Amino acid sequence: MRKYIFLILLLCNVVYAEDIKSIINRALKENPKLKAIENELNSYKEKEIFVSSFEDPVLNFSINDIQIFYKPFSRTLEPMQTINLGFSQKIPWLKKLDVKKEIVKKLYDERFYYLQDIKQKIIYSIYKNSFRYWEIVEKLKIIKEYEKVAKHLIDFSNTLYSVGKVSQADVFNAEVFYSNLKEKEERLLKRKRAVLSSLIYYTSFNVQDVKINPVKPYELTGLENFKSIALQKNPEIKMYEEKVKKKDKELKLAKLDYNPDFKFFANYSYRQGFRDYVSFGVSFNIPMWKKYRQDRKVIETSLLKSKEEKMYKDIVNKVNSQLEESFYNANSYYESYKIFDKFLLMQTQKVYESVISEYEVGTKNIFDVLKALNQILDVKMRLIELTANFNISYKNIERLTGEIK
Known about the structure:
The protein is of the alpha+beta class. The protein has helices at residues 2-12, 20-30, 32-51, 94-162, 168-203, 223-233, 235-256, 294-360, 366-400, and strands at residues 18-19, 58-64, 82-91, 210-211, 262-270, 277-284.
């Protein structure tokens, strides 16, 4: 029985690598910031109905009297003594309600693209941290591999030292090399924990491991095409487009304020001993002070619209600049990767094999061996870094074009 309990506990503690796509899908469902913005969007659907409706009508009750403290409800003293029941309804210039509704729609569209922009940034951040996680894991594999090589080198140096072919300093230097590898391993493990902590922030749940397959670096083309796609799909650009459209609607509403709003009213007056009567009519505002009110509102809204138009141009320039930077970075990583992969990796491997052979017969010292080992280790580490950096740059291009998934 104890054996079964132990096996169950062991299985419960096994950590499975979660696929990057499932991590992203779960993060988009659970992220509290996204949920907050979605609630905000739902509120605009209600606001759209609210702003396009008339204000509540007003009922009023009043008494006209000259002897309020003596028989206040007696209407027999004077014909002007009345009990009044009134009703009024404010009706704005009808186009105003339509424009207010359009403004809320544009506000909804603006916040919708803001939501998409946040989603794109979260997805990119998850990819970025996942590629960094992959980089660390791959480097740890290399470190582990060369720790075995270092141990073998220590044993081999001890053997050579025992027969007088090398000095004790060679053994010491081999041990220092092994210690340096252990130090690098410890630093990578700390970075690994930091990256996982960052992933937890962006995903809103505990990520223990990530399964991701980066692509091998390749040459990118079509920078202008990327810019064209970004202009059409980048959510931050689209958000500022909607800001401009919203200000255009607000300017239209400001100009409609030159037209009056109407207030229709009707009153029924009761007179005891006299004939009752009804009064009704309409009141409306006159834009007498338009120079100080309506004109200023139009000027203010026009300036704010101009500001949003300039912000839109600035965002387009910013996105294009970031696209160029990521595009050229990705190609730079590819060019470096090509050199390291097709030339340096093979050369350093050959040098190492040659040096270790000469060390075995005593024609090379430990410093030559360690130099060759460090060279091949640096090349392999650099290949991993370049692969991660290329993939991060490409994902940033996808984010800027609005196509990251």
